Structure to design on (215 residues):
């Protein structure tokens, strides 16, 4: 199109009112205050026994709980930052110390773990998928307000954040000890949540012009 005035007129007709998003910290706080209670309410659909914090290894379990929550908050913040041009998300190097300490505490508990029934491990997978469902929908809704120039990175970070929050909720109704099969299914649930977040959120988060150019 060579007629600039016609182009401007067309763009003016397509323009919609823009609402300035909240500051990043407020968006993360608002999402967290909505997501965790929603996940907890969904957890009531499942039969779980509350964690016995008097057991040996409770301190390591508390450390894991705190680390997963912090990593979840930082991952959700990164997802929001990636969705807005000009914002600088945290580098992956910030996550490495937290991830290493978390993995080390899990491995330390693996050596002390007792036998676990296959059914209990599967229940952990089902629990994480159940509590993550409303959190995934909420984070996609938040990202849809701004869309994203980097939809894959934004949704991957969002999925990782939701998975961390699901692990945080699981810590309140899980043995302080971790069995290898249990840990493997925790990681399988994490991967499933990330893939589901990307798959479900892509069409809602990607900028329409980018979607049409990919066809």
């Amino acid at each position: 199109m060579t007629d600039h005035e016609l182009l401007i007129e067309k763009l003016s007709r397509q323009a919609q009112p823009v609402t300035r998003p909240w500051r990043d910290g407020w968006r993360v706080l608002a999402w967290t205050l909505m997501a965790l209670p929603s996940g907890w309410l969904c957890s009531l659909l499942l039969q779980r026994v509350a964690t016995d914090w008097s057991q040996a290894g409770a301190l390591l379990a508390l450390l894991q709980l705190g680390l997963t929550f912090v990593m979840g908050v930082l991952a959700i913040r990164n997802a929001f930052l990636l969705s807005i041009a000009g914002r600088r998300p945290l580098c992956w190097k910030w996550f490495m110390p937290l991830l290493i300490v978390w993995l080390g505490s899990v491995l330390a508990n693996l050596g002390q773990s007792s036998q676990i029934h296959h059914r209990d491990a599967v229940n952990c997978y089902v629990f994480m998928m159940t509590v993550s469902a409303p959190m995934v929908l909420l984070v996609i809704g938040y990202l849809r307000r701004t869309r994203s120039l980097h939809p894959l990175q934004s949704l991957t970070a969002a999925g990782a954040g939701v998975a961390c929050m699901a692990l945080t909720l699981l810590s309140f109704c899980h043995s302080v000890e971790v069995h290898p099969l249990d840990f493997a299914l925790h990681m399988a649930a994490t991967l499933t949540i990330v893939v589901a977040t990307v798959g479900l959120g892509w069409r809602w988060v990607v900028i329409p012009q980018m979607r049409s150019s990919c066809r």
